[in-house]
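Troubleshooting entry. The earlier prediction with protoporphyrin IX containing FE gave an output that would not parse, so I re-checked the input for stray whitespace and re-submitted. Clean input:
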Amino acid sequence: MSLAGIFLITFLLVHLGINLLVILNEDPMVFNRAAHFMGTNKVIKIFEIVLFGGFLLHIIYALILQVQNWLARPKRYHKMTRSDTSAFSRWMIHTALIVFAFLAIHLADFYFKAKFGDVGETSEEGVHDLASLIIDKFQMPGFVIFYVASFIFLGFHLIHGFQSAFKTLGLNNKTYTPVIQVLSILYTIIVVGGFTAIPIVIYFQ
Ligand code: HEM
């Protein structure tokens, strides 16, 4: 579960880097070409299979862990006492469900449209105009609010997930733990801030 999580953490950085091209570059073709490369390159296609496999493994292991936790104590505690686990950790399964729902809607709106839908072509052969698809979507205030809210929950999920993934790999001692905690906060700020900037900049531009 931890390795699948680290793979997804890396994927998000790559995905963010490419998507930021939509707002950082005046010319939409820069993003369209990058997306075309990601969608057609053979090596990346293999990574895509690994990515979806990673998501599946991550979800299956999470469900197994959650059921094991419930079975370990079938009778709920009568009174909740404070423990040293963070709120992010206690809400992992809930934030996971929100991210999962976001992902289902996101893939239907972008991925399946890009792969099988009717996305307009650009002047360059075979290169689809995904930039216009993104820009059109983020003209709708409801869509922008839904995305930004989802990114906040994604952030809650990532901040604990990042730390927990490295803890599972044994990197949990007085030297590594503070470094990993700082890195998890930095990573989450970059990912949530970067993704949030995309719908907001497009909407107000
Ligand atoms: C404003 C933010 C985002 C934009 C504009 C965006 C845009 C896109 C687009 C255009 C595609 C289709 C690309 C293609 O297949 O050629 C895509 C695919 C995908 N997105 Fe996003 N995305 C955003 C945020 C996210 C987030 C936060 C996640 C994960 C939690 C995510 C997960 C995925 C996955 C798994 C795919 C399919 C794999 C791939 O083709 O790379 N996306 N996204």
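This one parsed fine. The CA atoms of residues 91 and 157 lie 8 Å apart.
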